[in-house]
Amino acid sequence: MIDLAAQPPARLDEIVEEFADLEPRERLELLLEFAESLPELSPDLQAQRDAGLHRIHECQTPVYLWVSVEEGKVRVDGDVAPEAPTVKGFVAILVDAFTGAAPAEVLCAQPDLLNRLGLAETLGMVRMRGLSAILHRIREEVRRAAA
Amino acid sequence: MADYVHPEVLVSTQWVDEHRRDPGVRVVESNEDILLYMQGHIPGAVHIDWTTDLQDAVRRDYIDRERFEQLCASKGISNDTTVVFYGDKNNWWACYAFWTFKLFRHADCRIMNGGRKRWEMDGRELSREPEPKYPPGQYQAGEPDPAVRAFRDEVFKHLKAARPLIDVRSPGEYTGELLHMPDYPQEGALRAGHIPGAANVPWSWAVHDDGTFKSRKELEKIFLKDAGLGRRNRVIAYCRIGERSSLTWFVLTYLLGFKHVKNYDGSWTEWGNLVAAPIEKGPGRQAAQRPPPERRAEREEVHQS
User: Fold this and answer.
1) What's the predicted TM-score (pTM) here?
2) Which candidate, B208, B224, B20, places its Cα nearest to that of B124?
């Protein structure tokens, strides 16, 4: 499914702009705010998580993601252990930016998102690898769900 | 802890709680996750990040001597300060920072046994205050100590001389069978497997589930009896980027009293990318003994670090 007219989700651009205006240290504070505002899972999804379902095995940190497309809109739910706030913050950004967007918009979200958030330098190459895998995974699942 | 060869380098959470305000003591948190310190830290502890503080941003190396001196001074650390490291992930990064401080020849370094996890399990106080500012330390670092760090040329010589190498990654990384992410090269390296002749002794075998180190007797069984290492051997340890192997370096050097252990911080992300470097795949020299029963599969850390 290729929609040449699609743009990345507007909310994602807003978040990128929010980060762009900040100093490196403030960016980390904002990322922590995102981490701490990640919505709790519904009891149903909590039960699935506790049963070990929907875990992203590429990540060393336990990360759980649910991606669905209903009535043309993407929904992302996620859960990350509190001892991994960086990963949790990144998941919270993606949940916020992608939920409610059209699948085509999510599919054209730029894979260099961490650079655009200004976090690449602070987090370093090694840490970025796992985070890029999460974005990649969401895009793959949206592609599948929207097919 | 008393029966380790150098018991003084390991302190308990209680010791840290009692001594964290001592003017001669500086508690340093070092984590894999850069936000954890902001989310809560031992009151009075400073933060040293392995990427942004200890590594050079341009070349693949540690900061130089001058910047290490500036870093210490800015954290209120002087040459005679007792520096106590603790952190997440079973103290990987605490051991990595400890090792970096030893590279610059800092005299008195300690590890808080069990790290953040043990501190939290003990229900001790965590603070969300901004990082405290201490009066600047007076610091003169030594030239980097070649006794603790191995570069790749030395690993080649080591290999030729059939001296002991230990690969502390998980068994899947060691055999080269680990599944990798689509579109991502294996572990940041173009080739998978291990350095020929290296014995696989996963780092995790040295710690309990609460992150504290196993007893001297248990460690001797793992490293002396099962892996066949001797205290006078020249040993090089490696993992993927040198953090897990700093934990094993710490265990061998301080808890078991090995005299000549080096950490190859280039590790697999260097070796697995070197053109024409020899690589072995398959079981190689995996210890016959499986990890102790408390070691669950999910603790075999693989990606990202």
Assistant:
1) 0.90
2) B20
